[in-house]
Amino acid sequence: MRDILKRTLDYLHQKDQKIFMYLNQKIKCRTLDAIMPRLTHLGGATFTILLCAFFYLFGKEEARLAASEAFVALTGSQGIVQIFKKSIYRKRPYMVLPNVNTFWKRLLRDYSFPSGHTVAGFSLAVVFSLYFPSYRYAIYSLAALVGFSRIYTGMHYPSDVLSGAFLGTTFALLTHSIKKLIVS
């Protein structure tokens, strides 16, 4: 049984690396090189916290409720991200694979799993989509693009991004459910 599990994990890891290399190197072009390093910051701490603050300070009642709930989902999910990163120790792709395209001179030295930017993007996307469903396609598209940008810029494997999307979505739904229980 252990042998089957090991072979399965090895197979998945190889596929993960293969998909990473395709998205990081094979589709590389000037347009994406210009867009992706900027777009990736939409999942960063500065943008996500400022977005919540902006909606809370300047929004109407529904926007303020969404912003406060999104902030709780964001901070809680990022706490979980740090627990995973400090217990799984998965090195970032550019630390392991040859010829990875990166876009910054100063690279991160923390761990790869899961993608915190993707977790943040989906935490906010789910909450804001629950409050503003007519914008959900645009909101989820932006969150997905943040996840894609993390692979394109060499920061994360696809499984880091998929896990981040799952974690962000789950934590946001959990936060929303708890809020509904408390308010009811």
From TrEMBL:
<keyword id="KW-0472">Membrane</keyword>
<keyword id="KW-1003">Cell membrane</keyword>
<dbReference type="GO" id="GO:0030288">
    <property type="term" value="C:outer membrane-bounded periplasmic space"/>
</dbReference>
<dbReference type="GO" id="GO:0003993">
    <property type="term" value="F:acid phosphatase activity"/>
</dbReference>
<dbReference type="Pfam" id="PF01569">
    <property type="entry name" value="PAP2"/>
</dbReference>
<dbReference type="InterPro" id="IPR036938">
    <property type="entry name" value="PAP2/HPO_sf"/>
</dbReference>
<protein>
    <submittedName>
        <fullName>Phosphoesterase PA-phosphatase related protein</fullName>
    </submittedName>
</protein>
<keyword id="KW-0812">Transmembrane</keyword>
<feature type="transmembrane region" description="Helical">
    <location>
        <begin position="39"/>
        <end position="59"/>
    </location>
</feature>
<feature type="transmembrane region" description="Helical">
    <location>
        <begin position="160"/>
        <end position="178"/>
    </location>
</feature>
<keyword id="KW-0378">Hydrolase</keyword>
<dbReference type="InterPro" id="IPR001011">
    <property type="entry name" value="Acid_Pase_classA_bac"/>
</dbReference>
<dbReference type="GO" id="GO:0005886">
    <property type="term" value="C:plasma membrane"/>
</dbReference>
<feature type="transmembrane region" description="Helical">
    <location>
        <begin position="111"/>
        <end position="131"/>
    </location>
</feature>
<keyword id="KW-1133">Transmembrane helix</keyword>
<dbReference type="InterPro" id="IPR000326">
    <property type="entry name" value="PAP2/HPO"/>
</dbReference>
<feature type="domain" description="Phosphatidic acid phosphatase type 2/haloperoxidase">
    <location>
        <begin position="66"/>
        <end position="176"/>
    </location>
</feature>
